[in-house]
């Protein structure tokens, strides 16, 4: 989240398991902020493909969910939905 204050990003690939703050906590913090980046697209990256996990990601404000191991075509398709040519 500190990086979002320092640099502009077009999209976040959110790993769900991280040492300090997990992807759920980070997404909630981003979405609840009053910062300009609060609406940035977030794509969850996780090995947990259970329906309740996917639903939780969406409910917390993530825009998409890509499972690990990552299939290149699925990741590209997800990125294409949220990134526009500038």
What are the key terms here?
single chain, alpha/beta, 86 residues, 41% helix
What does this structure look like?
With 86 residues, this protein is an alpha/beta fold. The chain contains four helices and three strands; from the N terminus they run H-E-H-E-H-E-H. It has helices at 2-6, 23-32, 51-59, 72-82, and strands spanning 12-15, 42-46, 64-67. The protein has a three-stranded parallel beta sheet with strand order 1-2-3, with helices on both faces. Helix 2 (23-32) links the parallel strand 1 and strand 2 (42-46). It is globular, with a radius of gyration of 13 Å. The mean pLDDT is 94.
Which regions contain 5 or more consecutive residues with pLDDT less than 50?
A: none
State Rg. Answer: 13 Å
Strand order of the largest sheet: 1-2-3
Q: Secondary-structure element order, as H and E?
A: HEHEHEH
The span between the termini is 24 Å
Major beta sheet summary: 3 strands, parallel
Which shape, going by the Cα principal axes?
globular
From the helix content, strand content and strand pairing, which structural class follows?
alpha/beta
- Averaged pLDDT, please? 94
- β-strand percent reads 15-25%
Q: What percent of the residues sit in helical stretches (DSSP H or I)?
A: 40-55%
Report the total helices.
4
How many individual β-strands?
3
